[in-house]
Amino acid sequence: MFYLILLVFILGYIAIALEHPLKVDKAATALIIGVIVWTFYILDVENILKLGFSPSWNSFIQMGDELSNFVKPMISESQWLKSEWNDWLVGINNPSDFVIRELEHHLIDISEILFFLLGAMTIVEIIDQHDGFRIITDRITTTNKVRLIWIISFITFFMSAILDNLTTTIVMVALMRKLVDDQKVRWFFVSIVVIAANSGGAWSPIGDVTTIMLWIGGQVTASEIILRLFIPSLVSIVVPLILVSFSLKGEVKRPQLASYDRTVIPFREQVIVLCIGVGALLFVPVFKTVTHLPPYMGMVLGLGLIWIATELMHKSKPVEIKRKLSVVNILRRVETTTVFFFLGILTAVACLQSAGHLNILAGWLNTHLANIYAINTTIGILSSIVDNVPLVAGAMGMYDIALPGSTGFESLFVQDGMFWELLAYCAGTGGSILIIGSAAGVAAMGLEKIDFIWYLKKISLLALVGYLSGILTYYLMFA
User: What separation, in Å, do the N-terminal and C-terminal C-alpha atoms of the chain show?
Assistant: First the structure.
């Protein structure tokens, strides 16, 4: 079953890649593989756990032994059997309960991402329905493809560092729908947005979830990660832009936007909704830093505030207008298939992490690749196939933060050491190589229905060249 889980994941991944030829929505495929892999896991859980590859099971056993040795001598046998500690350790005697606990644990992390995504998508849709983005798009007057793609990419790059790559991508997809009419041309622009969003998120301590992990874990500090990764990250988007500048020709065709009545949505209200919406998105990293609560809490708070603001704004308007612009009505327009796709794919990857497949991969990297550039480059490329979060978590678990003043190979692992900085860059930007390799890419794929094979043919090589250029830049700067 251990290998069957991996086979199901690979086959499901291929089905997602061939979504358009198969005529099966990727969200349905992702949901199915997410359930099947966990089903196989729990049906053969004893044999899978006996293999010893599951890091969480090994930690559970070790913690249970330590707890038992510490508590049991202090109390009688009857007290021990009735205690909460014994109830907690019942999973050792019943591995199926352990799997369920693992699933529930991963569901917490997945739910945080889903609620964050749902909140961000709803806020963006509220702004869009109030023609808030029109204030921005009306000021981007160029239709030249080369000039436009450079403008959009740099806006995305810096916005991603302030917000995060996922939220920025959702906002930029909404903007691109106002600027580019032709679907395939828009796919190309949105795909470059994905590269720019991931590059912009890599050099900021709040721009990407993996950089956040390393920042919170103490492997990197905010000031150093910004100073040392800004130029490599910038190179990773500038190089693809230079390459596409030679091939892009002509002008983009603007979509025919529906006319709107200023008496329905006055300019003042457009500005108010845009400012509240963007302010709510910008407030998320601030809220997290101040309160230490998960980012989705700040996003949900922002959604609640803009919801109340729009309700009050339209309370005196005719029923037809109130109904059209109400958040309840706008929620029906949110792409829920993207949320289900995230649910399925993250659930499937969580099973690979829990059962130990990703642990084997991390161990192989540690054994066979002794060079930090080789290790991190490989992690970045692998992050385009599986989620970068467990890969980075595995790397953080393999290596301890070395003490200040360490020499030789260990000096690469001190706080703000080259290994950790390069890991932040590679894990953040490597996901751009495939459309499914990052949260930004998955969101763009769901929102714009971008074909996996199309992205592979048109964008992957550009993203790979940019990714390797950034690594080379970092090497030349600090090696």
Answer: 44
Q: In this model, does residue 309 exceed pLDDT 50?
A: yes
What pLDDT does residue 192 have? 94
d(CA 417, CA 413): 5
SS3 of 414, please? strand
Q: Which long-range contacts (CB under 8 A, 24 or more apart) does 56-65 make?
A: 56/102, 56/354, 57/95, 57/98, 57/356, 60/91, 60/92, 60/98, 61/92, 64/89, 64/92
- Helices 2-17 and 336-355 cross at an angle (nearest 10°) of 150
pTM of the model: 0.73
* Pair of tokens at residue 41: 């896991």
DSSP annotation of 235 reads H
Q: How confident is the model at residue 80 (pLDDT cuts 50, 70, 90)?
A: very low
Residues 6+ apart with CB under 8 A from 92: 60, 61, 64, 98
Burial 81-91, CB ≥16 within 10 A → b, else e: eeeeebeebeb
Q: Report, in this order, helix, strand and coil percent for the chain, each rounded to 5.
A: 80, 0, 20
The DSSP code sequence of 361-409 is HHHHHHHH--SHHHHHHHHHHHTTTS-HHHHHHHHHHHSPPBPTT--GG
Smallest Cα–Cα separation from 455: which of 10, 20, 9?
A: 20
DSSP class per residue in 123-184:
HHHHHHHTTTTHHHHTT----BHHHHHHHHHHHHHHHHHHS-HHHHHHHHHHHHHHH--SHH
Q: Provide the CB-side half-sphere exposure for 51 (13 A, CA).
A: 18
- Residue 81: which pLDDT band, with cuts at 50, 70 and 90? very low
* Contact yes or no for 401/130 (Cβ under 8 A): no
Least confident piece of the model among 49-58, 91-100, 285-294, 466-475: 91-100
Retrieve residue 308's tokens: 């109340």
Contact 175, 133 (CB under 8 A): yes
Residue keyed to tokens 């828009």: 186
Q: Is the pLDDT of residue 262 over 60?
A: no
| DSSP conformation class of 251 | B
Distance CA 451, CA 316 (A): 44
Task: Pull the structure tokens for residue 60.
Answer: 């559970």
- Return the amino acid letter for 205: P
